[in-house]
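Need tokens for this chain, all 358 residues.
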Amino acid sequence: MNWDWDKLSEQRQRNTGSKTPGVDEINSTIKKFRGTGLPGGKYVIIGIIVLWFLSGVYIVEPDEVGVVTRFGKYVATTNPGPHYHLPVPIESVMKPQVTRIRRVEVGFRSFGSSRSFTQGQSRNVPEESLMLTGDENIVDVQFIVQYQIKDPVEYLFKVTNQDKTLQDAAEAAMREIIGKTKIELALTTGKLQIQTETRALLQSIVDSYELGVNVLAVQLQNVHPPAEVVDAFKDVASAREDKSRYINEAEAYRNDILPKARGQAAVILNRAEAYKETKVRKAEGQAKRFMAVYREYTKAKDVTVKRLYLETMENILSNPDVTKVILSDSAAKRALPFLSLDGGSFPVKAITNKKGVK
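Here are the structure tokens for all 358 residues:
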């Protein structure tokens, strides 16, 4: 089997940040020392060999995982701490940062190394951001994907150019979710649902690719209509806001009027119930009183008639607001046509009738 030692050396340099001498360089160095003819050349060669073996000592930082390869093939994973592997080119180690939260940007590119999106400090990438919605409108979507390395072996060996692969998968997942969403939801209240569904779909895609990453979040940064139609969308949004305002005002008016009307209706009903109860109970009382009087009348008709007459006269005579005239039968026949019946004042005279009642 022929191994490309230079490529292995370059890969180790790219992942560890240090350059380890290859076989050709080691052989060249040994030959130089052999050709020097200096005394103690053997000890120099032995020292070089010792240093070569010691070059296999490496330290894995707390946020890293060591991935050891032998002639380019994965053989072991090491945890944080000091470790040893056979010197290059036999074995090498790569130390990806598995706790670091990484991110890819879709639809825009930030300037500098800032990890937060700031409006005005990025450039748009319309070929990534312009997407078709479920109601056949175009919307400009810019978002980021945050992820961590879940399986360092898969991340390093299953897929090349991991960030680009994840970026393409994220764009495809977002296009699928946006393609099932109406533009109104995408621009207003549907953003959280879009983020959640896109993250789940993207995770399933990268798992099928064996990319070895865990998608932590999909965050929409800017969602707006294309610049060519943004004014029309603003008009629509303004009309929608007016509609909501009118609805809210109508709801407020209804909530103010209906309780008052219900209160007034309750008052009227309560008054009607009270009036009904008063009339019914009063009528029942009068009926009971009448029946009581009737029972007494049937027992002693003359006495009852006399008592009723006296009670009636007592009520009339005791009322100071009533004008009273007492006449005998004969006098009443002569004076009745001349009595004042219009409610005016009339002198009161006491005249004894035939029975001697005043």
